[in-house]
Amino acid sequence: MTDLTTNPAARAGAPAADDQWWRSAVVYQIYPRSFADSDGDGVGDLRGIIQHLDHLQELGVDVVWLSPVYASPQDDNGYDISDYRAIDPAYGTLEDFDELLADLHARGMKLVMDLVVNHTSDEHPWFVESASSVDSPKRDWYWWRKPRAGFAAGAPGAEPNNWGSFFSGPAWHYDEVSGEYYLHLFSRKQPDLNWENPEVRDAVYDMMNWWLDRGVDGFRMDVINLISKVAGLPDAEVPPGAVHGDGFPFYAQGPRIHEFLQEMHERVFAGRTGDYLTVGEMPGVTVEHARLFTDPARREVDMVFQFEHVGLDHGAGGKFDPGAASPRDVKASLGRWQEGLAETGWNSLYWNNHDQPRVVSRFGDDRPEHRVASAKALATVLHLMRGTPYVYQGEELGMTNMPFASIDDFRDIESLNHYAVAVAAQGQAPEAVLAALRVMSRDNARTPVQWSDGPAAGFTTGTPWIAVNPNAALINAAAQREDPGSVFAHYRALIALRHSERVVSHGSFELLLPEHPTVFAYTRTLGDRQLLVIANLSGERAVYDLPDAAGWREAEPVLGNLGGRLPRVDGRCEPWEAQVFLQEVTG
Ligand code: ISL
C-alpha cells in the first residue's frame, strides 16, 4: 500500500478543504420502512418519502441518506440485500426511485445511498451460486471453511473459529449440503463477502458505478471497516463472561482495508466530476485510523461514523448491559474527536440513527418538564461543532424511546436474538432482559415518524409494521411546524446557522471548561469571527466560570433554547439551557 500522507505529489492533487461542499452540509437520514407509508400496507415506501419532501426542505437539510431500499428478504430490514440493482417491492419501483431522485435534485438536495457490501443476503444469486457446490466458480466469493478438526460437523464447537456474531450466537452457519460453514458477522442470512477475491471487488465497483450513473450523489458505507479479514481467521480472545471470541482485532481495520478503500475510490470516484459524499460506518474505529480514512490526500472516504460516544453507556457486558454516560464523558469524547481531526480529516456528527436509542431519552431527559429543552440543548452542542451533522428522522421533532411492554412489541433481529439467547440459553430473568432492551433496542429508533396527532400518527392508513409511540398526540410534525418554540424550529435555526456562518462550517474548535461536570462549552474561531456555545447538559441549575467571560459580555446572542430568556454570559445556566453567541474578535 502506498502511504500517501508522505507523498507530496498526491497531497498536491488533493482538493483544498474549502472546496469540499459537504463541509457546510447537513444530512438527513431516512429509514424508509418507518418514514411514511403511501399505500396503506403499514410499511413506509418511496412514494411516502416523495410526499414529504416539503418537510425536509423546510428543515433546510442538504442531503438525504436513504437506508437500504434494495430487494431484500428483510431479515435485517434491508441490510440483507438480494439484488443491488432492484428496489424492494415493499418500497416501490425503480421509477419511483428515479422520481424521488429527480424531486430531491429539483429542490436542491442530494441523495446518498446505503452501500451494504460487507455481506449480501443468503438469497442473493451470488451466494446461491456460491453455496450450490464446493466447485462453484463463486465458491470463493464468500468465506467457506471446513468444520474444526476433531469435531463432528454441525456440532457445537465445530465452527471453524470461535468468533461471535453481532446478532448473538456464533459467526458461522453450517451448510449441510456441502458440509462446510460460511462466515456471517451479522445474521445467518447475511453471509460475509470475501473481499480478497478481485471478482467480488469488481462486482461491487460496477454496482456503485451503476448507481452513480443513475444520478445518486454518494454512499454511506455499511460497516465498511470490517471488509478486510486477517488471513487464517484465527480464534479470538473470549472476553470475561462471554461465550464467543471477540473477532474485532481480526476484522476491524483489517490488513487491506486502506488498500481496498483507495482502490474503490480509484475505480468509482476518481474519474468523475460530480459533487459526491462518502461516509464510512466504522464500529470501533479509533481517532488515529479515522484520520487516515478521512485524510483527503489518501482518497479513501470523506468522513466516518465513529462509535465512541454512543458506546459510553455500554456496560461491561456490552450494549444490553447499559449504564449511564456522564455529560463530562460525552463532551470529553466528542472534544477528543474534534481535536483529533482538527488538522487532517473530517468528523461526522450524530446522536441518532436507525441503530441507536433516541438521544432525548438517552443523553437528555424525556420527562415533560425537560424534554423540549434537553432535545434542543443536545442538538445545539452537536450541530455547532466542526464536522458534518446528521439528523435521523424524527430527531428533529424530539421523538423519544418507545415504552415497549413485552417482547412481542419488538421487531429487530438483534433485539429478538438477544432476548432468545439471554433468556432461553443463558437463563437470564426475562424482565431484566426486557428492561435493557427498552433502553437500548434499535427498535426505539424505528417506530414510525410522528407526522400528526391522527390515526397511526399520520404514518399509514393501515396497521403499522411496528407500533407508533403513544406520545404521538403530543410530539408530531404538524404541531411543531407551526410552533416557533418547537424542537423542529430549533433544528431549523441550527441548520440555517451552519449555512449562513462560515465560522460554524469552517472554524477551529476549542473545548472550554473540560472539568465542568455538566456544562459543555466551546468556541469556534475563523479569522476574526468567533462563536461561543454554552450548554448545561443536566436538569439541575449550573454555575460556571468562563476563562474570558468579560470578553463575551458584549457578544451578540444568536440562539437560546428557553423561550423568553435572552442568552447572557453571566456564569449561570438553567436546567438544560443552551446559549450561542457570536462576536468579532479584536486585537
Ligand atoms: O447496533 C449494533 C449492534 O449492536 C451495531 O453494532 C450495528 O450492528 C453496527 O453498527 C453495524 O450496523 C450496520 O450494519 C448492520 C445493520 O444491522 C445495521 O442496521 C447497520 O447500520 C448489518 O448490516
Please give the number of β-strands. Answer: 22
CATH superfamily of the domain at 507-584: Golgi alpha-mannosidase II
Considering DSSP H and I runs of 4 or more, what fraction of the residues is helical?
A: 25-40%
Q: Rg from C-alpha positions?
A: 24 Å
- Can you give the mean pLDDT? 95
Low-confidence stretches: 1-14
Taken from the alpha-carbon principal axes, the silhouette is globular
Task: Please give the largest β-sheet.
Answer: 8 strands, parallel
CATH topology of the domain at 507-584: Immunoglobulin-like
Classified by CATH, the class of the domain at 507-584 is Mainly Beta
Distance between the termini: 47 Å
Number of helices: 17
Order of strands in the sheet with the most strands? 11-10-9-5-2-1-15-14
Distinct bound molecules? 6-O-alpha-D-glucopyranosyl-D-fructose
Share in β-strands: 15-25%
What class, by secondary structure content? Answer: alpha/beta
Task: Describe this entry's structure for a reader.
There is one protein chain. The protein is of the alpha/beta class. Among the domains are: 121-192, Oligo-1,6-glucosidase, Domain 2 (Oligo-1,6-glucosidase, domain 2, Alpha-Beta Complex), CATH 3.90.400; 405-440, no CATH class; 507-584, Golgi alpha-mannosidase II (Immunoglobulin-like, Sandwich), CATH 2.60.40.1180. The chain is 27% helix and 16% strand. Helix 6 (198-214) packs parallel to helix 8 (257-269), helix 12 runs parallel beside helix 16 and helix 13 (413-425) runs antiparallel to helix 14 (430-440). It is globular. The chain starts with 7 loop residues before the first helix and ends with a strand. The protein binds 6-O-alpha-D-glucopyranosyl-D-fructose. Residues 76, 79, 116, 166, 186, 222-223, 281, 283, 319, 354-355, 414, 442 line the site of 6-O-alpha-D-glucopyranosyl-D-fructose. 6-O-alpha-D-glucopyranosyl-D-fructose (ISL) binds at residues 76, 79, 116, 166, 186, 222-223, 281, 283, 319, 354-355, 414, 442.
